[in-house]
Amino acid sequence: MSEVFYTDKERVRRSFDRAAGSYDSAAVLQREVSTRMASRLDYVRHAPSLILDAGSGTGFGAAELRRRYPDARVLELDLAPGMLLESRGKQRASGGRVRRWLRPARPWQICGDIERLPLADASVDMIWSNLAIQWVNIPDAMFREFRRVLKEGGLLMFSTLGPDTLKELNASFGGLDEATHVNRFIDMHDLGDALLLAGFTEPVMDTDRIVLTYDTVRDVMRDLKALGAHNATAGRRRGLMGKEAWRRIEQNYETWRRDGVLPASYEVVYGHAWKVAGQGKGQTLPDGRQIIEFIKPK
Fold first, then answer.
1. Nearest to 148 by CA among 127, 110, 120
2. What is the CATH number of domain 9-163+184-211+267-274?
3. pLDDT digits 0-9 by tens, 163-178
């Protein structure tokens, strides 16, 4: 996989750790996508006993999963321990004094990497992952891990970001230098191929467009910082930008202003697939297309 896509995982962890306390105040997109993804479960017949929320953040999606599947246990997994602590605090605060006294909130949580899941083979019935897999380096390896820990008949449902995400910001940095300034995201069709390569069956992929609006470019950047969504590509600029560079970026972004506001566009990719008995990795696509395998750069 090109360095353009490769992310510094330790930087990602530190960014989300620092942003844990401010995350919910800025996570408009994350909550909206989680809600839209949850609505897709209305059309899926599945009764999971154990659900893995892979990249659980501050627990918004996990709370919806507990409401929707009251008899299931939800295991929250996140790379950043600060996010898990925020979720734990919210669960304890929302339990009520009597409920906490009778049965203290003890959420199932693991701090770990979705590319190397610390779980046993065939141990979960469903994997839910909302806006987390865009931070992985090797989608093929991640999907193989997801399939490994799923039981036969298990469901994978996820959302991520596509290549048109933050196109306005990306264009505004154009020509500034040779560094990457905005995270790069993988195309929906390549993700679908990676699902098949990992051995999943009946993959369904679709996209959605969500546009958030802001008064200034600095408001856009402030939201991204509050979310911990810094540029984490290996080819990012390492030093601070000067005032002249920022002035050029702001001028470029102003060309996108419409109706008095600046847009920040997100291409949201949704996908779900199943683990079916007898299906293994390395399937051939029915239309003969070549499957692209993502490889970590040396």
1. 120
2. 3.40.50.150
3. 999 999 989 987 665 5
